[in-house]
Amino acid sequence: MITIQELEIMERGLLAVNRAKELGRPILISEVHKMDTINPLLFFNIGKERFRGKRFFWKDPTDETVLIGLGISKQIQSDQASDRFFHVEKEWEKFLKDCLIFNPYTEMGVGPVMFGGFSFDPYKEKTDLWSEYANSLFHLPKYLLSIIDGQTFLTTNTVCTPHEDPYLFKKVSEERNEILNALHQNDPKNSAAALLEMKEIGPEMWKKAVDGVVKELTDGPLKKVVLARELRLVFDDQVMAEDVLNNLYMQQHESFIFAFESNGDCFIGASPERLVKKQGNEVYSTCLAGSISRGKTEEEDLKLGQMLLNDQKNLKEHGFVVEMIKEALEESCQEIILPKKPQLMKIRDIQHLYTPVVGKCHKDASLMLLVERLHPTPALGGLPKEEAVVKIREVEQLDRGFYAAPLGWMDYRKNGEFAVSIRSGLIQGDEVSLFAGCGVVADSDSESEYLETSLKFKPMLRALGGN
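RESULT FIELD:
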């Protein structure tokens, strides 16, 4: 049985109550304990009764950072469109002021960590599809499991008011120990919901939109516009995020795997694409654009990969992304390291042109400013950036919500990582919406682009039990 000493949290709780009284406002008390190995999927699963709708899951492609949050101690959200990245950062800094953090460890992603993301375009008219997600939405979990380079840590975050009953901390201690003890019990398995129906949302209208954009690209200032579409799935029962997450973990392990719940809905996916990572004074980004299917044999796979590496349309599209990301990082970084040629990133269903980027910045450089400068990359929006987003707003039927937008985390030491939330879906009871897009350039063909988006639906379809 794993337990954490109650006396310790009671003593620290009294400190927090006194500080809250002195300041006359709520403050955060956050404490970290190093743990034995804990299965991250099991930790997410055991929160389903007590914390359903208030959980998140994050795993990077190399398993260096795995974060699972249960409960919500603090929520930062806003539907404002302007300065939304700055707003989140300032609210986070304000909340952390005068907090009590008991964390003897130096690893990033341990201690107070907020997780969440932004909508793709806050100026796009919002529909009921994304009604449970504000344009900016972040959670500080009550309990955070951090697995960093194979080491396991548990952070407990409690917000304490000036009139707090110290008994609160005894209840927190008891609840935490109940969660840890539940790790040793058998997790009951539910029978997976069966897929009844797949509905493509306006496929012919989408192809017409592609054709219309191609005509504009020939004459106007636009070089590229990314258009996305939706596939709506209907099941015979509630779709359980735990089941889908487990499938993604097994099937797409080399991707960023994420789940983010809000008021009963769950945004979930397995993205191959990092937007930006900040670790101390080092910044990492990924240029990912241009794609082709995987081969059925090793020989066919190599042949397809070589075709992609030599395809002028895809190389041009990839070059746009590289140039834009380089320019965005140069504003914050003193040095940029960038390979001359792209390489291949091979994941289960698809291979991409891929160029890693590394930058050196000031330790206190703003992660949110980097996110703002990089979003959306030409791989998700187009070029020129502002004009492409306006065109998407005009012609795309889809309310993208958090699809193709920055999703990730930031700790209290200004470290963090955001992925581009593609290869994703939104679970809503017994229905799920899947999203996929592709880059439209002057020589694009709407039928080919339609088939490319169909290929990009495959990872999520498989995780949901479809074909």
